[in-house]
Design a protein that fits this description.
Distance between the termini: 15 Å
Largest sheet: 6 strands, mixed
Shape: globular
Mean pLDDT: 83
Low-confidence stretches: 1-5
Radius of gyration: 16 Å
Strand order of the largest sheet: 2-1-6-5-4-3
């Protein structure tokens, strides 16, 4: 068995400052998931830095740049419209680790569920999402995201 230890070192922040950063991260994810769920691909892609990298289990290779990200989400939105279901994302168990360079390293659980045209919601997938967020133009942007199926994390 191999064990990988991940650094837990983080700058010591006063409680109020950390609480403010944590609240900003929560607002960021709530906003980003709402954009994704409403198929606002243009604005969703803008939550990523221009040179962002996205690793998804459903993609054969990492997606780079906003255009590729928007295209991926646009294709998913078209599929949902065709099948009549509404896809929604829930993010929780958020861990926020401020870094000395001002970035935030985050890790959270993401539950994806679908509400079909008829019937109640059905859970589709549970994921672990690990991000690096940086400030750009006064907004948080993702520079790197790795999404792993929860059962494989």
């Amino acid at each position: 068995m191999t064990v990988e230890l991940v650094s837990t070192a983080q700058p010591a922040l006063p409680g109020g400052e950390f609480a403010a950063l944590y609240a900003q991260a929560q607002r960021f994810y709530a906003h980003q998931m709402r954009l994704l769920d409403t198929h606002d691909t243009k604005h969703w892609a803008e939550t990523f830095a221009e040179d962002a990298v996205l690793h998804l289990p459903s993609l054969p290779a990492p997606a780079k740049a906003r255009v590729a990200l928007a295209g991926y989400v646009r294709a998913g939105a078209a599929h949902r419209r065709h099948t009549g279901g509404r896809l929604e994302h829930w993010v929780g168990i958020l861990d926020v680790r401020p870094q000395t360079d001002g970035s935030l390293h985050t890790r959270c659980s993401a539950l994806v569920h679908i509400t079909p045209g008829q019937g109640g919601p059905k859970a589709l997938h549970a994921y672990v999402m690990e991000d690096v967020l940086v400030r750009s133009g006064g907004e948080w942007r993702i520079t790197h995201r790795r999404v792993t199926r929860d059962d494989l994390a």
